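Data card: per-record layout.
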Amino acid sequence: MLLFGICRLHGDEWRGRRAAEKLIGLDPQNSSPHVLLANIYAASGNWNEVNSLRMTMKEKGFVKLLGCSWILVGQKHICLWLWIGLITMLVKLVAVLEYLLKVTKEGGYVVDMDHFLHDDEGGRPMPKAIW
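The structure for this 131-residue chain is written out next.
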């Protein structure tokens, strides 16, 4: 993987492609060499190859894995997953749900909570089990 970084830094597509071919030969189902090679192409401005490689990945059903940064805490290495894409989607989902709630309330809809809640032993409402 270090070789990919060096190839990207120096714009060395030829060595990057050779390294990718070797890694793909070792583990054809691993998307990482494809993603790293696309990054090398992008860094050197070779957008035709980037697009071609992305299409190949899509045809093969590859999905880019979430990134991970490693930190050392005490004697343990901990992986910090980058959930930025997921967080962005959740923020959008919450916005849509808030909008739908607002529209339904403005339309006069009132939720009949009798179908969703029952009292626990202390008289507090709790969700009913669906199953």
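Known properties of this structure: The chain has five helices and four strands. The longest strand covers residues 68-73.

See the next section for split statistics.
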